[in-house]
TrEMBL record, chain A:
This is Phosphate transport system permease protein. Pfam families: BPD_transp_1 (PF00528). Its main location: membrane. InterPro entries: MetI-like, MetI-like_sf, Phosphate_transprt_permease. The lineage of its organism: Bacteria, Pseudomonadati, Bacteroidota, Bacteroidia, Marinilabiliales. SUPFAM superfamilies: MetI-like. Keywords: Membrane, Transmembrane, Transmembrane helix, Transport. GO terms for cellular component: plasma membrane. It comes from the Bacteria. It is a multi-pass membrane protein. It is found in: Cell membrane. Residues 67-271 form the ABC transmembrane type-1 domain. Belongs to the binding-protein-dependent transport system permease family. It comes from Tangfeifania diversioriginum. GO terms for biological process: transmembrane transport.
UniProtKB/TrEMBL annotation, chain B:
SMART domains: AAA. Coiled coil: none annotated. InterPro entries: AAA+_ATPase, ABC_transporter-like_ATP-bd, P-loop_NTPase, PstB-like. Pfam families: ABC_tran (PF00005). It comes from the Bacteria. This is Phosphate transport system ATP-binding protein. Residues 35-276 form the ABC transporter domain. GO terms for molecular function: ATP binding; ATP hydrolysis activity; phosphate transmembrane transporter activity. One of its GO terms (cellular component) is membrane. Keywords: ATP-binding, Nucleotide-binding, Phosphate transport, Transport. GO terms for biological process: phosphate ion transmembrane transport.
Length: 284, 280
């Protein structure tokens, strides 16, 4: 019996070891491929200059338009998603505290929305644009990406709030707080570190998504100055470059992919650092 | 808010309350609560948690709710400041009369009602803020904006719970820098700062070490001069040490109640006799 347990323990250890390390190895392999293919094309010029005429046919210049455009779009979408998402998450956890069934129904729908492929959001955004009479523009892209990341953000905020013990709410109520005061002065502060992580992860999802902006944001060699101008994004820039028959342009696509990967990496690391920094007041 | 023209600075050692304004004293006396619970029932879809509770709680005494785990002590305590409202599965009926007012009636100002009762949980739940802000929190909710008044109250209440000397140089530090025992005393100071009349304590020493437990118990003995304390515990010795009045509960019912010497040393019912021997 003891021997059997030891074997069982050993097998389980091996399986979990392989599973854990294969995830890391796949990620490393992916990074190596991207870096290997793109590093030769990566230069200051690509990162810091605008595309010159015929860039996608081997012309000079860089992808600054797409980098800045991606930031414009993702920051706009994240701000919009937070404006909707934070009150929604607080509402679910504070006002609906007695209505477990309603809470769970809302969570179910949000999870379903989370699972919808981003191309569907793109198509919906496109239909909504036609309805509202909007052109493919920064504004339309922001709205569509906000639709994509809002369910993610609400559920992420919601998960943060769910981890806060109900006794902390009780403590706040018993000091004479209303529900709103409890939400804003206690739950928001306690969850702040988690909110930062959730926010940056949603931002990362927004900046990396191509399908939702394919029909809605358009594409341009310029950096938009107003909301109704089209905007270039990094994922679409990579897509257009990879579709090129010219080898040199395809290599630049990998250079752009390195830029996107590094941005997302910086966002993930910042999320960890910021959440650590802001959790000093959180009750463990 | 109108600035109050009196100094309320209880000195626990000399057990004196200095008040310049006699009308305020009269006001406070008039407001002294005697809680009366009439036919209180709390049930869920699975059954009754509290069955026909009828109880009078005398003022300025320590009333201990004693009984095995799951007998409804905490539910009774949470009914008193209507924290049961947070749980939809709990259906509460009956009357709880505090200050002559039935708090179970609809249309109550729950925030004001709850400020009359400080709550101390099993584990300390300080707010996610600095030590100072924790004590100041309730005052700000009351509308007090004067920094001088707030600072004075923070100092007074931290002194009352014996925490001032330990934290006076780091009031801006996060509460997480305090030990569990210190956090529990901070929670008590936070509750006292809003000047409640009643302290609801739900096994407040169950997560504490013996030294911190002793500090809290001694504090309770001092505080009862000015407050009515309702203490939930299942530690028999604690009940004997602190209680002026013991209420023994079992499966949602009050089985016996009275002076600790009377009911813990000479139990009348078989259930209490068994509990005193076996602990359940």
């Amino acid at each position: 019996m003891n021997r059997l347990k030891l074997i069982e323990e050993w097998i389980f250890k091996i399986i979990s070891f392989i599973a854990a390390y294969s995830v890391v190895l796949i990620l490393l392999y992916l990074l190596i491929v991207v870096f290997k293919k793109g590093i030769s094309a990566l230069s200051w010029e690509i990162v810091f200059s605008m595309p010159e005429g015929g860039y996608y046919f081997g012309g000079g210049g860089g992808i600054l338009n797409a980098i800045v455009g991606s930031f414009y779009l993702s920051i706009g979408a994240t701000v919009l998603a937070v404006i909707i998402g934070l009150p929604a998450a607080l509402f679910i956890n504070v006002q609906l505290i007695r209505l477990k069934r309603t809470q769970n129904t809302i969570r179910f729908f949000l999870d379903a929305l989370w699972g919808i492929p981003s191309i569907v959001y793109g198509a919906f955004g496109f239909a909504a644009m036609l309805f509202l009479g909007l052109n493919a523009s920064l504004l339309a892209g922001i709205i569509t990406v906000a639709l994509l990341i809002t369910p993610i953000l609400v559920r992420a905020f919601d998960e943060v709030l769910k981890t806060i013990p109900v006794e902390l709410q009780e403590a706040s109520f018993s000091l004479g707080s209303t529900r709103t005061e409890t939400a804003l002065k206690v739950l928001f502060k306690q969850g702040f570190a988690g909110f930062i992580t959730a926010l940056l992860l949603a931002f990362g999802r927004g900046i990396g998504d191509a399908a939702s902006v394919l029909f809605t944001a358009g594409f341009t060699d310029n950096i938009p100055v107003t909301f109704d101008e089209p905007v270039a994004t990094l994922p679409l820039s990579i897509f257009f470059q990879l579709s090129s028959p010219i080898e040199e342009v395809r290599q630049r696509a990998y250079a752009a992919a390195i830029v996107l990967t590094v941005i997302i990496l910086i966002i993930s690391v910042s999320a960890r650092l910021l959440s650590k920094r802001y959790s000093k007041n959180s009750i463990k | 808010m109108k600035q109050m023209a009196f100094t309320y600075q209880p000195n626990l050692l000399s057990e004196s309350v200095t008040m310049e304004n006699q009308t305020e004293v009269a006001e406070m006396k008039k407001d002294s609560p005697i809680i009366e619970i009439k036919n209180l029932n709390v049930k869920t879809s699975e059954g009754k948690i509290l069955k026909d509770i009828n109880l009078k709680i005398p003022k300025n005494k320590i009333v201990v709710l004693l009984g095995p785990s799951g007998c409804g002590k905490t539910t009774l305590l949470k009914s008193l400041n209507r924290l049961t409202d947070l749980y939809k599965e709990l259906k509460v009926s009956g009357q709880i009369i505090i200050d002559g007012q039935d708090i179970m009636k609809a249309g109550q100002n729950l925030a004001v009602m709850r400020q009359k009762m400080g709550l101390l949980s099993q584990r300390p739940f300080p707010l996610p803020a600095s030590i100072y802000k924790n004590v100041a929190y309730g005052l700000k909710l009351k509308g007090i904006r004067s920094k001088k008044l707030i600072s004075h109250s923070v100092e007074t209440n931290l002194k009352r719970v014996g925490l001032w000397n330990e934290v006076k140089d780091r009031l801006k530090s996060p509460v997480t820098s305090l030990s569990i025992g210190q956090q529990q005393r901070l929670c008590l100071a936070r509750g006292l700062a809003v000047k409640p009349a009643i302290i609801l304590a739900d096994e407040p020493t169950s997560a504490l070490d013996p030294i911190s437990t002793k500090i809290i118990e001694n504090l309770f003995k001092e505080l009862k001069q000015h407050y009515t304390i309702i203490l939930v515990t299942h530690v028999l010795r604690q009940a004997l040490r602190l209680a002026d009045h013991v209420v023994f509960m079992y499966y949602g019912e009050i089985i016996e109640q009275g002076h600790p010497d009377e009911i813990l040393k000479n139990p009348k019912t078989a259930i209490l006799k068994k509990y005193l021997v076996d602990g359940n």
